[in-house]
Amino acid sequence: MTTSRQIQLASRPHGEPTPANFTIADTPIGEPGPDQVLLKIRYLSLDPYMRGRMNDAKSYAAPVPVGGVMEGGTVGEVLVSNSERFRPGDIVLSHSGWQSHAIADASALRKIDPTAAPISTAVGVLGMPGMTAYTGLLTIGQPKPGETVVVAAATGPVGSAVGQIAKIKGARAVGIAGGPDKAKALTEEFGFDVGLDHRSPTFAQDLKAACPDGIDVYFENVGGHVFDAVFPLLNFFARIPVCGVIAQYNATSLPDGPDRMPLMLRDILTKRLTFRGFIVRDFADQSKDFFRDMSQWIRDGKVKYREDVVEGLDKAPEAFIGLLKGKNFGKLVVKVS
Ligand code: NDP
Fold first, then answer.
1. Any domain includes 293
2. Which of 14, 110, 120, 319 could form a disulfide with 310 if both were Cys (CB 3.0 to 4.6 A apart)?
3. Which residues contact 26 (CB under 8 A, 6 or more apart)?
4. Is residue 27 domain-shared with residue 88, that is, in the same domain?
5. Within 10 A of 241 (CB to CB), how many other CB atoms are there?
6. Residue 45, strand partner residues
7. Rounded to the nearest whole angstrom, what is the distance from the C-alpha of residue 269 to the centroid of ligand 1?
8. Whose CA is nearest to atom 36 of ligand 1?
9. In total, how many domains does the chain have?
10. Does 139 share its domain with 278?
11. What's the 262 CA to ligand 1 centre distance in angstroms?
């Protein structure tokens, strides 16, 4: 009988998660049944959406139950296969969660070609975050040559791909990130036209100066004070794909201050703004196009990616808590084995 080291949800956080919200347990997981495989997990993806799964709130996906294994995308190696589709040694994408081993239905797995790209990219630039950037920007944002595209969390897997795809489409890319090192990487590593630090006291003025013709596409990843600085700069007919609002994920109450919603609604009307929320799976039918284009752009050096690799499953809680505070620099993955 195989034992899996698991990180389970011990309790639901109020505000910021803490290490006490997680437990580490070695749990027997049985043996694979018909059309199932036993996986050894190599990489676990850590993503902001996991904060939502820790809450017992109605959302687009069910919460992780208390005592359950934390949810997450994984890259694993097949150890035992009871399926004709997979052999021991195959590398597969699965949604096995925060654990070292898993039993999975063959129908829920996708084979990864380990010779095409590093296997960890299947949960990064060539996986869910890359597809989020591609579909949200191109379907909702629709950047045109010469337009200004703004995105925050811009050194992360979604934001860095948004900026680089905007450039491929001929737009100007203005990236926003936390701290001078990340801001510098935006221009030097990812080829944005401008990189700004949202923690700078002059951030709102810096953004205005960086967007002399206003903003045509704002790819919303964060909300909070970044959104406050962006909103007045939006041009007539600007498009705002609403992808994430990470500044709010740990919030327990509404921010202080006057209710500005009526003024916002007036501007949405008069400027004819398009706000559209989306979840990446809404655009599942674009996965072939995404994979073809993104693979080619990486091969051509038009899209670069950066990974922040944490060694060891036991470090996942600490790394995840850090992600919500901007401690990661690039796509956060845990090297499990
Ligand atoms: P990242 O790896 O970029 O990590 C999140 C980053 O958010 C942090 O590194 C930090 O970057 C930034 N951040 C955290 N708190 C704040 C804050 N208060 N204000 C401004 N920035 C903050 O994450 P991803 O690229 O994986 O995801 C980016 C966004 O996309 C998230 O909101 C996520 O929920 C969303 N998403 C949505 C999907 C969908 O289907 N709609 C799918 C995938 C992701 P920095 O230090 O630069 O500030």
1. no
2. 319
3. 3, 4, 5, 6
4. yes
5. 26
6. 333
7. 28
8. 244
9. 2
10. yes
11. 27
